[in-house]
Design brief:
Layout: E1 12-15, E2 37-42, E3 47-52, H1 65-75, E4 81-83, H2 86-89, E5 103-105, H3 106-114, H4 119-130, H5 133-146, H6 169-179, H7 183-189, E6 193-197, E7 205-209, E8 221-229, E9 233-242, E10 245-252, H8 257-271, E11 273-278, E12 283-289, E13 292-301, E14 305-309, E15 317-323, E16 336-344, E17 347-356, H9 365-372
Helix pairs in contact: 1-3, 1-4, 1-6, 3-4, 4-5
Length: 375
């Protein structure tokens, strides 16, 4: 038994005009910033609300360590012991001054990696996870492709200058968005200060301090990572929350990175408001079942949909119903039936799964005979 769509195969326009606003709109100009590449998204919805050269390939310096931290958390336990090799202890640049054969827990290495941007910690983590740097690079690049960050290439775990080591503002945002789904990563990048063990009895403790100065400059800052090399310039991945909205952004080669971050955060928080488009379980449409004209499956939203919207966008929202192919009875409550795509000015901004609200049974022999004769 097949389900007939109420309309044609892919696209059914349900509703064009969503809300008409009669009061004046106050719009701020998109901020001008110094960065070569930038992007800003609202974390819950994943909607990107600001870009500047989002696809321009640029070196990312130590913001590379967002990926290193993500892979560490995906592949190892926090209480596992990580041993620093001779090579790790000799990596140049920012460091937590690991000694050869020194052991730290993975969690302690992560704090060194993120707060002090320890290149030695990045090297030690990479060797621990993958055996050597080359294999870890392979893992980094595989993960980037998995996340859709296809304009990114990694050549090392720390971000020191290397040929073909680059990303884009948009790709780096995808990687960070994924990393922030891990509560441990979110906790580590939101930490301002941390004490971890030192290398010996003479230096018993390391006092780590987060290099992200946005913590002292912008209210609500809750992560994530700084970066700098002469080749890459100043780079920053940042995050801040206000009134239940969390914005996450990336800046590449940004001479005024903290000013840039503050500008686009101010703009994002003031220009966009959270609007609930659908509640969980909200009825959307009914589809008729093929061979059973008296029965229809009711489609409801699987999840609540909330989007950051500018005032002028609220009258430009459209919804497109996309039922899946070859839906056949029996259908049970909460079975996946299709998607509802949300667009603004023709551009997709969100999508929600649609599930069945009611059961549709397979007809028995006599019911099919009766249907054949139109009863």
């Amino acid at each position: 038994m097949k389900i007939k769509r109420l309309t044609s195969y892919f696209t059914i326009l349900i509703l064009i005009i969503f809300i008409s606003f009669v009061y004046p709109q106050s719009l701020k100009a998109t901020p001008e910033i110094s960065a070569d590449g930038a992007a800003l998204l609202e974390l819950d919805s994943g909607r990107i609300i600001y870009v500047k050269n989002p696809d321009k390939e640029l070196p990312m310096a130590s913001t590379t360590k967002v990926m290193t931290g993500l892979l560490a958390l995906e592949n190892e336990e926090l209480d596992s012991k990580v041993t620093a090799s001779k090579e790790a202890s000799e990596v140049v640049g920012s460091s937590i001054y690991l000694q050869e054969d020194e052991e730290l827990l993975m969690e302690e290495m992560l704090y060194g990696l993120i707060l002090e941007s320890g290149n030695d910690a990045a090297h030690a983590i990479a060797e621990h996870i993958a055996g050597d740097i080359q294999n870890f690079n392979r893992l980094m690049n595989e993960k980037a492709r998995e996340l859709g960050a296809t304009s990114t290439k990694f050549q090392n775990p720390h971000g020191l200058p290397a040929k073909n080591h680059f990303t884009t503002a948009k790709d780096l945002l995808k990687i960070t968005e994924e990393a922030l789904t891990d509560p441990v990563f979110s906790r580590v990048v939101a930490t301002k200060r941390k004490i971890i063990p030192g290398p010996d009895e003479e230096v018993r403790f390391r006092f780590l301090r987060n290099t992200n100065k946005l913590f002292g400059k912008y209210p609500g800052t809750d992560g994530v990572k700084t970066g700098w090399t002469e080749k890459a310039g100043r780079c920053l991945v940042f995050s801040a929350s206000k009134d239940g909205t969390r914005l996450v952004g990336t800046l590449l080669n940004a001479p005024k990175m903290y000013e840039d971050a503050s500008k686009i955060l101010d703009w994002g928080f003031s220009e966009y408001n959270q609007v609930t488009l659908f509640e969980e379980g909200q009825h959307i449409e009914e589809l008729q079942v093929d061979g059973n004209e008296k029965e229809k499956v009711r489609l409801i939203t699987k999840d609540k949909v909330t989007l950051p919207l500018r005032e002028r966008e609220k009258s430009k929202i459209s919804y497109i119903l996309k039922p899946k192919e070859n839906i056949e009875a029996p259908i049970y409550t909460e079975d996946y039936i299709g998607n509802l795509e949300v667009t603004i000015d023709g551009q997709k901004v969100s999508e929600v799964k649609l599930v069945a609200e009611n059961d549709i049974e397979v007809k028995g022999f006599w019911n099919r005979i009766l249907s054949f004769f139109g009863r």
